[in-house]
Amino acid sequence: MSMHSPAETLSEKEAIAEAEAALAGIRTMREEIGRVIFGQEEVVENAIVAIMSGGHALLVGVPGLAKTKLVETLGTVLGISAGRIQFTPDLMPSDILGSEVLEQSEDGKRSFRFVKGPIFTQLLMADEINRASPRTQSALLQAMQEYHVTFGGLRHDLPQPFHVLATQNPLEQEGTYPLPEAQLDRFLLQIDVDYPDIEAERRILLETTGTRNETASPVFTGEKLVGLQNLVRRMPVPESVVNAILDLVRSARPGTGHASTDAHVAWGPGPRASQALMLCCRARALYQGRFAPSIDDVKALATPVLQHRMALTFAARAEGVGIRQVIADLVNAMDRD
């Protein structure tokens, strides 16, 4: 089996030692998160996969499913600073990015000083991002892409690492501004947050309604997290997995000969989806204790990577066809090929 390896490589002994140290940290991190977040294993896994891959994630779910608690816990466990912005229709770009204030020195000289906004943190929760106006959304998403803010002709770099976990309520659409497709593409993953199962909800009832709540402890630091992200990018990928990624993403584009896609998809994912899937497969493998990704990783991540990068035709929406159903058809076709 041939392997695709990044250009920058370590010796086999160094690579194994670094990977084993990372695996030990990941195991401890999972234990710490499990003390605070009950159930939702797939949501937690995908959120951490997005961060390990160096990207941002969009969490979609109804209120009360511990999305805010998850972001706070991740900030603690990863040892990075965390902040939260509640998005509202009257929120302005300066409320996120910062602003310049005019100051006067003792000798009467006036000058502008940049006051940093809440975006200058390492893990930002953008709560209900679709409630802000398109202008405010664009300000945040530009910073997510370029990792800096420009004021008065001066560049202000965001802290590293920098990640955004944004939330979006799928039910309440009145008074909201849906994110344009080009801006949705900034998110590495769209993570659907569903209701917990009955056993997880039982634990929530018993362990969060008393006088004492569990808290997580730091496991990583910002510097160690950057090292983990670099390790993910250096992981070898089997040629079979590379081919599976290419085949899946290309089959999601209309006009490539896949019947379900041609019938239901107006436009499909671009090369950024392939890049996202490649990184996330590596991160998921490492999160689960493996040194190389498999085709099962491609299948598991197909929906969170692709669903916000595709659009259905009007006829498909009228027929009640969902984007997840189309992706499931593409994944099932992988087994038949």
Automatic annotation (TrEMBL):
InterPro entries: AAA+_ATPase, ATPase_AAA-3, CbbQ/NirQ/NorQ/GpvN, ChlI/MoxR_AAA_lid, P-loop_NTPase. Gene3D superfamilies: Magnesium chelatase subunit I, C-Terminal domain, P-loop containing nucleotide triphosphate hydrolases. GO terms for molecular function: ATP binding; ATP hydrolysis activity. Residues 53-197 form the AAA+ ATPase domain. PANTHER family: MAGNESIUM-CHELATASE SUBUNIT CHLD, MOXR FAMILY PROTEIN. This is MoxR family ATPase. It comes from Oricola cellulosilytica. The lineage of its organism: Bacteria, Pseudomonadati, Pseudomonadota, Alphaproteobacteria, Hyphomicrobiales.
